Amino acid sequence: MSTVPNIVPMHPEATADPRAVRWVIPAGTLPVLGEIAEAPDELGRMLHSDDVTSIESIEVEAQAVVVRLADGRSWSGAGARVRDALGAALQHPQRWRPADVVTEDDRLRAALQDVLDGPAGDYIRSHGGEVTIVSAHDRRAEVRMAGTCTHCPAAGFTLHSRLESELRARFPELVELRATQEPGRAARRTWLTLRRRSA
Prior knowledge:
Order of helices and strands: EEEHEEHEHHEEHE
Number of strands: 9
CATH class of the largest domain: Alpha Beta
Distance between the termini: 89 Å
Helix content: 25-40%
Number of helices: 5
Largest sheet: 6 strands, antiparallel
CATH architecture of the largest domain: 2-Layer Sandwich
Radius of gyration: 22 Å
């Protein structure tokens, strides 16, 4: 009986660099982050070759693999081969080797930054809020909420329903996410005066 390999879903996104494509993958697919020194099979050979499909660099993010082609190479010529090689390489996550040692704390910080740079952070910024990372270690993260998040009655809801749920999707080992508020003045009440309409 033959077995069909478990295909990892992925799709390409353009970047500002025409030689680089961001291949979006599910969070947690790869146990590594940052620049890649070794990749499995054909993808690894492309990283270390000088042929028409050679790759200059591969960088793993929390939910993507960014592949940058070497000078003089084009996605129209190499795209299908890179896609197929990446799909096959994702079947062997244990064989990816980062250029630098990445700790669990590094993975947590990267996952949290990815959340803050994405839709959850956009939502907070659209309401005049600001969230920054204070710390990320021992599977615990702390953020500082500022701007309109300071003293906002919905800040706790935003922290848990938006930030924490997205962070857990990227870093399932999370033990705790907590927030501190930027010290500042308490919100002042503003009274509006209503004028009487003249008859």
